[in-house]
Design brief:
heterodimer; A: 274 residues; mainly alpha; two-stranded antiparallel ribbon; globular; B: 465 residues; alpha/beta; three-stranded antiparallel sheet; TAT_signal (chain B); Bact_solute-bd_prot1 (chain B); SBP (chain B); transport (chain B)
Chain lengths: 274, 465
């Protein structure tokens, strides 16, 4: 309980406290009540940032979870050759720090000397500019997917391993094939694990930071300092020295995440009961 | 920053030993002569009165440990010289990151009220962002006034406050010049441009002759280069008076001239606009995509380390000029040593900051070991330094070129007390217009209005504009 208070509630309370003030370079600190919140709720940079990560979530997460599910089911089916190698291979990107991953992909995306661009030139194929306005969100989604498919796969795969063998045997006796088993036994068994990966993904998406922050170095004109809500909070605190407003934005972002998580849980539960 | 290996200097020569003694003498004299003044009050450390020689001597013999945040590689060698001279004082060197990351940590420590070092390495442009928060110690009482003539004029105005405070001691500088590919120029019959008009004509000519090669790259993420070019053109984008008054004019006639010029070349597609210091940019330099690099005095050593494939093909020249009759240049980079006001050992810290950058042996070591471009007049005239003729530049005396440029750097340029914000706003307005090849002059207006509203929000009185 003490730990919970110290590590969780205290920083949260402090952030909430900070968000009620406004410190300026000239004139010092003043209590401003909820002014910062009013400002944030009509701040286009904050709202665009939240909108962008919401879009990111809607597109990237289903792709990533479907891939993870496909890998988990394939591995669990035992029909795959080199299962160990594949399992490790899919998981390894998760072990690569996201900073390194973003740097590596940034290099691969390079429009002049990046391998994709060079290959495209060799083969006279048009290669899109992955770092341009139109492609950037997709390029980021690709990096995040690459990083986290393995992680989610392991969670789903572990859940599959807990399904009792008898169920499969009974299904086989009833004449069910591999697809039927996957659909009627494995997927229902995976529901709690899928829920978990989905929640992690909500939080991860809305907190998107490392990847855009690093790609910002190579595409500064595409990724602005408020590209994602989290990046915006960071910029406010460390570039603009607006610590109080940064606390406000972080607090609101936390609120958005709580609401989004709750909405996801609610939809999933409703679907199950209906 | 420069970090490759090359010839290293042996110990101090008799000559520098003599200079060394001279400087320490001047130091004590300065301490005795410094008139009192300055606006510091409250804390005893910055009372403005000159500290007596006897007190300095006493402090330097008292066992003390100083913490010094710096990102200079192998600075232990210079520190060792100091510790040899003042055995009672130990200096703990900490690398807290380079540039912005270090400033961020410093700001956090200052706010927290503990964990701040006694001294920090700080770039010229960052000084006002720390003086506005009252974080630096005025070094006048410790004899810094006497050092004025030691340094290149314009560096001294960079570290001086509006009431004559001395906020830091210059360490190295980055007067701007142009590195160019002699082979590419020869191949296409291009003369080294002396004016920006000639430069623009050369850009068009080169692009027509070979679309794969561009005359230069003006990085859309590099506000420091833009500031340097503004500096050269004589702009005064930020003029502060008093503590809370600032005139922001990043959209004045001089800025618009630059905006129209560079924005125009970018729009025509005859120059590159890719972000610098990235993999792609390094590859471009190595593969000859750019025929020049508009850079600073630290550029030659940096380039010879990162574009090895092009050794022997580069040469150095001054920046093209707006007015060839009155050559001028700007500065990009370089740093100083400052004492943090909260230090418990102001005397030892102040003496260290001065020794590190003015002791001839130590100053020379920065030039020969770390390849820093000097801030002291003596080194800029040191024959050993200026006659260095690296083969990467075909035996050209590159240091001499930049030493000559250093004397043409405009000394009236000022930085705003919120440089990070100015940089971010530049990248998202002016930089973006270059990258997108849209209207740069109009983008200057957005930069101006974003900065103005930020400054007002922070409580400044914004004048003019």
């Amino acid at each position: 309980m003490v730990l919970f208070l110290l590590l969780f509630l205290a920083p949260l309370g402090y952030a909430a406290y900070l968000s009620l003030f406004r410190e300026r370079l000239i004139g010092g600190t003043a209590f401003v009540g909820l002014d910062n919140y009013a400002q944030a709720l009509s701040d286009p940079q904050f709202l665009h940032g939240v909108g962008r990560v919401a879009l990111f979530f809607v597109v990237q997460v289903p792709v990533m979870l479907l891939l993870a599910l496909a890998f988990a089911l394939a591995l669990d089916s035992g029909l795959l050759r080199l299962a160990r190698v594949i399992r490790l291979g899919v998981f390894v990107p998760y072990a690569v720090p996201s900073v390194v991953a973003a740097l590596m992909w940034g290099y691969l995306y390079g429009p002049d000397f990046g391998p994709f661009a060079q290959l495209g030139r060799e083969l006279s194929l048009p290669v899109p500019d992955f770092l341009s306005d139109g492609w950037m969100l997709g390029s980021l989604a690709n990096i995040v997917t690459w990083e986290f498919v393995g992680y989610n796969m392991i969670i789903l795969y572990a859940a599959l391993r807990t399904v009792p063998e008898e169920l499969y045997e009974a299904a086989a006796v009833d004449g069910a094939g591999a697809w039927r088993i996957a659909w009627s036994i494995k997927l229902p068994a995976l529901r709690p694990a899928l829920m978990l990966t989905l929640l992690f993904s909500v939080i991860g998406s809305f907190q998107l930071f490392n990847e855009p922050k690093l790609l910002m170095n190579i595409a500064p004109d595409v990724i602005s300092s408020s590209y994602t809500a989290n990046l915006y909070a960071y910029t406010l605190a460390f570039t603009g020295q607006q610590v109080n407003y940064a606390a406000t934005v972080s607090f609101l972002l936390g609120l958005v995440i709580v609401i989004a998580s709750y909405a996801v849980l609610l939809t999933a539960n409703r679907r199950r009961t209906s | 920053m420069p970090q490759n290996t090359s010839t290293s200097m042996s110990g101090p020569s008799p000559m520098s030993r003599r200079l060394f003694l001279g400087t320490t003498g001047a130091l004590s004299l300065g301490a005795a002569l410094t008139a009192c003044g300055g606006s510091d009050s409250a804390d005893s450390a910055g009372s403005g009165k000159p500290v007596a020689r006897a007190d300095i001597d006493k402090a330097m013999k008292t066992p003390t440990e100083l913490t010094f945040w710096t990102w200079v590689p192998n600075i232990d060698k210079e520190v060792a010289l100091f510790e040899k001279r003042y055995p009672a004082v130990k200096v703990k060197v900490v690398n807290a990151g380079q540039g912005t990351p270090q400033y961020t940590k410093l700001r956090t420590a200052l706010k927290a009220g503990s964990g701040a070092p006694d001294l920090v390495q700080i770039e010229y442009q960052a000084i006002p962002t720390f003086t506005i928060t009252n974080s630096l110690l005025d070094l006048r009482p410790y004899g810094a006034t006497a050092l004025k003539s030691t340094f290149v004029d314009w560096t001294w105005s960079q570290i001086s406050g509006s009431d004559g405070e001395i906020w830091a001691i210059p360490q190295d500088t980055g007067p701007m010049g142009m590195l160019y590919r002699q082979d590419i120029f020869d191949r296409h019959g291009i003369d080294v441009p002396g004016t920006w008009d000639e430069f623009a004509a050369a850009a068009r000519k080169l692009h027509k002759a070979d679309p794969d090669v561009l005359l230069t790259n003006l990085a859309a993420n590099q506000v420091a280069a833009w500031h340097g070019l503004l500096w050269q053109a004589g702009a005064k984008p930020y003029v502060t008076s008093g503590k809370s008054d600032i005139a922001i004019s990043v959209d004045d006639a001089v800025s618009r001239k630059l905006g129209a010029y560079w924005g125009g070349l970018a729009k025509e597609g005859v120059i590159g606009v890719e972000p610098d210091f990235t993999d792609s940019w390094y590859a471009a330099l190595n593969k000859g995509k750019y025929a020049t690099w508009i850079t600073a005095a630290w550029g030659p050593v940096f380039l010879s380390g990162s574009a090895k494939a092009t050794a022997g093909k580069w040469r150095a020249a001054p920046l093209p000029q707006w007015d060839a009759a009155e050559p001028s240049s700007g500065n990009w980079g370089g740093s100083t040593t400052a004492v943090i006001r909260s230090t418990k050992n102001p005397v030892a810290a102040a003496v260290f900051a001065q020794f590190l950058n003015t002791d001839p042996a130590s100053a020379k070591m920065f030039a020969t070991e770390q390849f820093f471009f000097p801030a002291t007049d003596a080194l800029l005239k040191d024959t050993e330094f200026v006659s260095d003729a690296p083969s990467f530049y075909g035996g050209q005396k590159v240091n001499q070129v930049f030493a000559d440029i250093s004397s043409t750097v405009n000394s009236s340029f000022q930085w705003p007390p919120f440089l990070d914000q100015a940089a971010t706003d530049w990248t998202e307005t002016v930089g973006k217009s270059l990258a997108d090849r849209t209207d740069t002059v109009r983008a200057l207006g957005s930069w101006q209005s974003r900065l103005t509203s930020y400054a007002k929000n922070q409580g400044f009185t914004v004048k003019g504009s």
